[in-house]
Amino acid sequence: MSGECNREAKFGPAGNAIAFSQKYKSSLDAPAWIAGLGLDCYEYQCGKGVHIGQATAEKLGQRAQQAGIALSLHAPYFISLSNPDPEMRRKTVGYITTSCLAARWMGATRVVIHTGALLKRTRRQALDIAKETLVRPSPPVTTRALGTSPCARRPWARSISWATWTRCWSCAG
User: Fold this and answer.
1) What percent of the chain has pLDDT over 90?
2) Which of 87, 96, 108, 167 is 20 to 30 A removed from 173 (C-alpha atoms)?
3) Mean pLDDT score, 90-98
4) What residues contact 115, with CB distance under 8 A and at least 6 apart?
């Protein structure tokens, strides 16, 4: 990459379609199947938790690259950035970090994260709690999960500092 994000629109499924699952048993076959449909990206689903190991994720990434398929990863649905409970916020940071690590293993360029419910808060209150939640991860853990990247849309991936790590959440679109 030349230091900029690829801004070209890509199209593909989030998860595996019923038609795919009727013929194949492994997500490792998804990239070739998707390419055969004339699509060019695949969002690997971790909605119920990150249950992919490094070897499988790397193999998925290799197959996606061979098929010309861009990868993204959908983080668990139970993430709740604006939950005021400290234990839930700690778990949320863990889910995000684990998602980023799995994405790194497979070469995914995006991690999709839903912020969670307002929980009887205003949007401003929820956003303030979410911002505070995102500055909590320890630099060694996030560096291991996030690695490095020349992508300008992911400036957090270039440094272990709190400020640069949290910019990913404010600029991700």
Assistant:
1) 52
2) 87
3) 90
4) 79, 80, 81, 82, 126, 130
